[in-house]
Specification:
PhoU_dom (chains A, B); homodimer; 0% strand; Methane Monooxygenase Hydroxylase, Chain G, domain 1; 218 residues; cytoplasm (chains A, B); Phosphate-specific transport system accessory protein PhoU (chains A, B); mainly alpha; elongated; phosphate transport (chains A, B); 6 helices; transport (chains A, B)
Chain lengths: 218, 218
Amino acid sequence: MRAAYTEKIADLATSLATMCRMAEEAMGQATQALLQADLPIAEKVISDHDELDTLRASCEEKAFALLALQAPVAGDLRSVVAGIQAVNDLDRMGRLALHVAKITRRRHPKQALPEEVKAYFAEMGRVAVHLGKGAAEVLETHDAAMAQDLLDEDDAMDDLHKHLFNVLMDREWKHGVAAAVDVTLLGRYYERFADHAVEVARKVIYLVTGRFPEDVVA
Amino acid sequence: MRAAYTEKIADLATSLATMCRMAEEAMGQATQALLQADLPIAEKVISDHDELDTLRASCEEKAFALLALQAPVAGDLRSVVAGIQAVNDLDRMGRLALHVAKITRRRHPKQALPEEVKAYFAEMGRVAVHLGKGAAEVLETHDAAMAQDLLDEDDAMDDLHKHLFNVLMDREWKHGVAAAVDVTLLGRYYERFADHAVEVARKVIYLVTGRFPEDVVA
């Protein structure tokens, strides 16, 4: 009974990690599509999204069943509650990748990004994928130390985002308002993606330690 | 025992409704601050936010205790799970109001909004507050019919957001890129606020009916 329950909790963790990998891959592909104005890749990200939606529903059902089946306590209960909360972050990560792909499709065959800011988005995409991969790994391993490292790595995204805004706000911006609107939204999508990946890491720290990182004296 | 448990679940619902009212009031005040470039009101929204953070933690603890204390089933379990999920939406609503207040503060004593788009934001603010009030009410009453009405009312926000983007993308936009960036972000914040209020309504429908609205044949 106990072993079967532990196995079901591990199965939920695996499904959450799979959701996270799908979202991270979607963001990687969406970034590629954005940088190269590649319509087929953008379309792939958009059509693949349904699968993530299905997996989301399945994760929610699994978590609910774990609560209904048996009354978990302590660490088990924290795992399930953190799982219910993480599903939401993973769902948002997938949707943010979808938004990036949709902007690429809307502007095609034109480029959504002026050349001037492409390097920022290449780097924001790299950081997003890195954080997504890290979040998937901590969901599987429950490695709190690795989760803590991810929290620190989010600063890289914040810095990139700030620099991008400086470029946009510069009087020298010569790509017009429509491009500025796209770049503003895209920047926000990458920043939020990173926030959610970090939030997943925070939840893993909580389920392992019983405390959120801000409660821990550094 | 049973009566005491039901009372604790009702207490969680009341706390969630309080969180929702605080977020809705914050968005109302943030909109007023934005439209009038009123720094004291913006500062109030920013300093009041801590209270919402405290209430969030308290809601999470209450929900967790409800699961740990007793093994709820069926409707009770759905109430607690929906509560755990709703806390996240309510937290986001509060943060989005905070973002609006922070843009107002950053631009002060200048106006963040060109006169041309003020009417859009007055109306988006009105819709956001209306949806927020509605969400608070359905959190308290668990009225699924009222929750369904809120789902339909979100269209008003989507329409406003689309119109706003048309204004921004128009070649006649003459307020420069910096204002366009602010307006883009602000529009996104109001749209997301409405999305979260609607998501809260969806969760109430789920906890009452056991099914999410999209599963129900219209």
